[in-house]
Amino acid sequence: MVKEVHAYVEVPILEGVDLTIERKRIKVKGPLGELEKDFSYAKTIDIRKEGNKVIIEAFFLRKRERALINMIASKIKNMMIGVSKGFRYKMYIVYAHFPMNIKIEGSTIIIENFLGSKDKRCAKIVGKDTKVKVSKDEVIIEGIDLEAVGQTAANIYLATRLRGKRKLCPHGRAGGPGVLDGIYFYAKEHIRE
Description:
The protein is α+β, with helices and mostly antiparallel strands. It has two domains: 4-84, Alpha-Beta Complex (Outer Surface Protein A, domain 3); 87-189, Ribosomal protein L6 (Outer Surface Protein A, domain 3), CATH 3.90.930. The chain contains two helices and 13 strands.
């Protein structure tokens, strides 16, 4: 496999965002809050701040290191967008006969009466800054960390995901309309523009 000799990515720092780099630990401050991520696992990659941009650079890298550079650049961009605009995921609650009861207890979302079942389904809220609001037919997840907001939405979806025989149509035959009950993601937007 041929190695790429030099890879270089520039990430411009957004207006109103304060970014500091200390030994591959990046701190980003903005109007909505502060985020910190550690990229020390990327040993062959150099991350530095020059003027109003972040430089991510490496030499003699393989395909995996090239992908790592692009991933780090993407995470830094998302951190800056998060502290300046924030992220909001919207999920729709779908049920046919049995209305779900959804409540928040600490850092856990509890889903009751899913398909008329008495057992509770739980989903974890990821991140200390992630906020979840529940209305009659909608769940809204907000926060400044895109990874935490996205993982919280995934946890809610997976808590109501059907597998196996429960996914079959009411007559027990595969290929029927199945059961559509669940909580589904439908929109992603910024908290402020």
